Amino acid sequence: MELQKPDYLLSLASAGILVNVECKTWGATKKNNQVTEEVTSAYKSAKDSADVVVNLMANVKEHKEILKYRNDIRNWTRRWTYDWAGSLRYLPMMRIERFKDEFNTVYKPTYDNLVVQLVDKYEDIVAEMAFKNGDLFKREDYPSKDEVAKRFKLEISTIPVPMNDFRVQVAEDIADELKKHYEDNANEMVQNIMRDVTEDLTDYIKRIAAACTTEEGKRKPKVYDSTIEGLRELTRTLVKFNVTNDAVLETMRKEAEQVLGNYTAEDIRDSEAVRSSIKSGMDDILSKLGVTVA
Predict the structure, then answer these.
(1) pLDDT at 217
(2) What is the pLDDT of residues 1-43, one digit of tens each?
(3) 222 within 8 A of 211, measured Cβ to Cβ
(4) Which of 126, 141, 262, 289 has the least C-beta neighbours within 10 A?
(5) Is the Cβ–Cβ distance between 24 and 87 less than 8 Å?
(6) CB atoms within 10 A of CB 72
(7) Judgement on whether residues 70 and 129 belong to the same structural domain of the protein
(8) Total domains present in the chain
């Protein structure tokens, strides 16, 4: 009996790809065994009860900037993709071109430039750490300049959604069991992704509705360009990414797109009539879902 690929996975395979954004950094820490032994001995503790770890780049601005930017890259990746398995993330086909463009023109060059800044100043930084870390400083703890450069890497890799592994001939009783397990897993992945998509769309609608709320005597809410563009980008994606053909999600998408129209954040900020119209429309969408704006 030949296992058939479930429709869910076929839909995912045609609607997107899997991506892995690998951001490798140097932690710049080193365990000091001698001091660890002195501390545990002084406190009459077991040898494995504590570790003294030396921060080789303590308060070094260039190193801190790289670690901070690593979080920016992680947040950017999560904003464009959905959970799949481990470091692999699911990227809808509609977003591939822009995702790769932002990686190649913004995140990759910025990250590489931050690494260059650290490497260029590395020898001076090591000399400075000799004063900062005092007796904890050991020159042998610091790798060479070239080795440090190799410890930082930012790369992106893509692979198609795997489908062919399960087209095998097996005994009929085992095939039935495997097929059910396979379909359950595929179904769970799809449902998780589409749940996240629906939550994202609902969140954008709520934020815009809240931003269009005006009450007498209260400060006018802020309407951000990023929020407006975020909703537009998501509705464009959903034109071809409603892989479960969810009628409610499609209705939400169409109505949100229609309510927002061609209005910009500036239009919304400057016109009370526009704010009122958009708030009424967004509230109507949310009311159909049983969601209220606080």
Answers:
(1) 54
(2) 344 455 555 567 778 888 999 999 999 999 988 888 888 888 8
(3) yes
(4) 262
(5) no
(6) 13
(7) yes
(8) 2
Q: Are 228 and 106 in a shared domain?
A: no
Residues 123 and 34 in one domain: yes
d(CA 275, CA 184): 44
Tell me the residue range of the domain where 266 lies: 199-294
Structure tokens at 79: 């904003």
What is the DSSP track for 76-134? HHHHH-EEEETTEEEEEGGGHHHHHHHIIIIIHHHHHHHHHHHHHTHHHHHHHHHHHSG
Q: How far apart are CA 212 and CA 291, in angstroms?
A: 16
Does 144 share its domain with 205?
no
Task: Note the Cα 168 to chain centre separation in Å.
Answer: 35
Burial of 57 (0-12, 13-18, 19+ CB in 10 A): buried
> How many angstroms separate the CA atoms of 33 and 39, rounded?
10
**Does some domain include residue 8?**
no
pLDDT in tens, 251-278: 999 999 999 999 999 999 888 899 999 9
3-class DSSP assignment, residue 293: coil
Q: How far is CA 219 from CA 212, 213, 232, 263, 267, in A?
A: 12, 10, 26, 22, 18
**How far out from the chain centre does Cα 32 lie?**
35
User: How crowded is residue 216: how many other Cβ atoms within 10 Å of its Cβ?
Assistant: 4
Distances (CA, A) of 230 to 32, 121, 227: 48, 39, 5
Secondary structure (3-state) at 203: helix
Among 111, 133, 159, give the residue marking a domain's end: 159
Q: Is the pLDDT of residue 169 over 50?
A: no
